[in-house]
Design brief:
328 residues; alpha/beta; Rossmann fold; UDP-galactose 4-epimerase, domain 1; two-stranded parallel sheet; 13 strands; 41% helix; binds NADP nicotinamide-adenine-dinucleotide phosphate; binds guanosine-5'-diphosphate-alpha-D-mannose
Length: 328
């Protein structure tokens, strides 16, 4: 039985990946941070909490990373941990660089000392491309437009440096946006389905959005974690773009979600709040994942329409059972 260690277990992707690896027969270890509240809601929601060995570690702390790697004795390590919210990276650029950028270097350095034969997956991001025009693939230049994007570019290059210099089996998955019913409430897709459900149940009347004309290449997180695993099963380590190849605007997502909710015109519900606009944003992100489709045999299984529908159905149930307001 193989051991896998996931940094960032408690996040959206960590949860789907843990579930995927358990089904493949892995012994799954995952890290969580010390917080003042419980952080295992996602693992509990999909019923895998008891099946994972949980290790307390923070990727801004080298000692805890070393202990986690020594304890798990991993065959495969997945680094999904990050300050992953682009909007907050403008307000907390130093923390974002420390966690999202240097955090990856700390893990790589620990692998070098403690688990040089482990295979390593780094969660790179389409945010690294910035506003470079057209469909993006593995050869496209990086022109990041946020502190988060800059930190991810650092982590990406550092991962490739460790692969070259120390022969670590390291892969970067350059993933475009992927969403799900387990998506964090501050990301625009989940914010829309969650808040629309609250409006539907009369828990609030309106909510605010920022740039509704931005377009993203939105896939389903459950499909994307399979690609992470596939990368580590190849003969040689390499980097791959993972994307659906279509982009849709925030406005389109909102319109479709409102339809699935059985609600009227969203124009009576949404206010545009200029404070939600970012100092720099990316207007359109769309990827070309031909290399992954050819070499990994991967392709997305969930359409944009079904993704929106699943998120809407989930939040209609979820909101019914909850009373807490969203605070951003
Ligand atoms: P997420 O839901 O925000 O999860 C991030 C995870 O990182 C959480 O488990 C979080 O723990 C953990 N974390 C944050 N700071 C940490 C620290 N200092 N030490 C240890 N762990 C820490 O993000 P996601 O959507 O699952 O994304 C997974 C990874 O893929 C991230 O690296 C993200 O940047 C990258 N990515 C995501 C997308 C996407 O569209 N989802 C696309 C491209 C790349 P808490 O639960 O305690 O906060
Ligand atoms: N979050 C948020 N909230 N975004 C809004 C809002 C709002 O109220 N209104 C409009 N938007 C716009 C943002 O300005 C952005 O252009 C777009 O919606 C998507 O925002 P997010 O859902 O926050 O995602 P992101 O694209 O910035 O970042 C996500 O995808 C990256 C991959 O490209 C995150 O998951 C990153 O971690 C990931 O790397």
């Amino acid at each position: 039985m193989k051991n896998a260690l996931i940094f960032g277990l408690t996040g959206q992707d960590g949860t789907y990946l843990a579930d995927f690896l358990l089904k493949k027969g892995y012994n799954v270890f995952g890290t969580f941070r010390r917080t003042s509240h419980r952080c295992f809601e996602r693992l509990e929601e999909i019923g895998i909490f008891d099946d994972i060995t949980k290790i307390k570690a923070d990727i801004s702390d080298q000692t805890s990373i070393n202990s986690a790697i020594r304890q798990a004795k991993p065959d495969e390590i997945y680094n999904l941990a990050a300050q992953s919210f682009v909007g907050v990276s403008f307000q907390q650029p130093i923390l974002t660089s420390d966690v999202t950028g240097l955090g990856t270097l700390r893990i790589l350095d620990s692998i070098r000392d403690n688990a040089p034969d482990a295979k390593f997956y780094q969660a790179s991001s389409s945010e690294m491309f910035g506003d470079f025009p057209g469909k993006k693939d593995e050869k496209t230049c990086f022109r990041p437009r946020s502190p988060y994007g800059v930190a991810k570019v650092f982590a990406h290059h550092m991962t490739n440096h460790y692969k070259e210099a120390y022969k670590i089996f390291a892969c970067c998955g350059i993933l475009f946006n992927h969403e799900s019913p387990l998506r964090g409430l501050e990301f625009v897709t989940r914010k829309i389905t969650y808040e629309l459900a609250r409006v539907k149940y009369k828990k609030q009347k309106k909510f605010s959005l920022g740039n509704i004309y931005a377009k993203r290449d939105w896939g389903f997180a459950g499909d994307y974690v399979e690609a992470m695993w596939l990368m580590l099963q190849q003969k040689n380590p390499d980097d791959y773009v993972i994307a659906t190849g279509e982009s849709h605007s925030v406005e389109e997502f909102l319109t479709l979600a409102t339809e699935f909710m059985g609600m009227g015109d969203w124009k009576n519900i949404i206010e545009i709040d200029k404070t939600l606009l970012r100092p720099t944003d990316i207007e359109n992100l769309v990827g070309n994942s031909s290399k992954a489709r050819k070499e990994l045999g991967w392709k997305p299984k969930t359409s944009f329409k079904n993704l929106v529908k699943e998120m809407v159905e989930h939040d209609l149930e979820y909101v019914k059972l909850r009373t807490d307001p969203l605070s951003e």
